[in-house]
Fold:
Amino acid sequence: MLTRRSLAALAGAAALALAAAVPALAQPIVIKFSHVVAPDTPKGKGATKFEELAEKYTNGAVDVEVYPNSQLYKDKEELEALQLGAVQMLAPSLAKFGPLGVQDFEVFDLPYIFKGYDALHTVTNGEVGKMLFSKLEDKGIKGLAYWDNGFKIMSANSPIATPDDFLGLKMRIQSSKVLEAEMNALGAVPQVMAFSEVYQALQTGVVDGTENPPSNMYTQKMHEVQKHATVSNHGYLGYAVIVNKQFWDGLPEEVRAGLEKALTEATDYANGIAKEENDKSLQAMKDAGTTEFHELTPEELAAWEEALAPVHEEMAGRIGAETIAAVKAATGTN
Ligand code: LMR
Structure:
């Protein structure tokens, strides 16, 4: 007679036999996606959306691990980590490709080069965008998509309504020579600094001010440590979603197809929310009441444009006159 104990033993043996009959599931391919901003930004939300869709469209063959807020790497390190294969995917801002030796991307940093998102998209969705990506290939990097963030505002602890107000201010910038030239043109002192260090630098007075789209300022609470801001929209900040080329080319074809589908949808999503996220962040900072916001009058705007115009000429040699001309042709601002 089967006792309760022998029944339990039989059930255990049956379970073991069944497990042995099912081939061990292959380990998912892990994609580490590192970035430096908060999860509730356009880029952070785009990365989360990609994670969800990539796992769905590859039937779990891929496991995307998103590391926000510089948890894994800061700005400069993350590009090195990608080239070494320590992470597989990033979305650095377009201002951060100069140190990699691809200075053409700094064209996106030229002051007032895009009149708005539509003009920007003629570049990122067109031939110029593809041409820029082709320049990454011999660095071991493949460009997959452009993700929008937004147009930058300036902040400082003193009023900054006119270019003259910048004289001598220490301003944090990303690692772009064009942004360095921009701050120099305003008479400010540019300081390159990793994004993760900006809040503390503003708080302790290591720098006086900075520039960023509202979504980045708000989610890092920069408005809590900046008394003034000007809605200057003087430049654009957005991203290139990039992968380690060797890793990408080595993926099984059906997996890569699933990831491409996921990325196309995540890109539509991220670019669809960017403007609204920035509008909401700007309003939230205004509502917080810790920063006095200044809107430029037409005369002030003209003064900013005039002060910053020489940067285009000055940086043509670095960016490449052809790249600048291609961007201006695409946007119709020749
Ligand atoms: C910055 O460093 O200010 C930005 O590039 C951060 C980001 O990734 O948006």
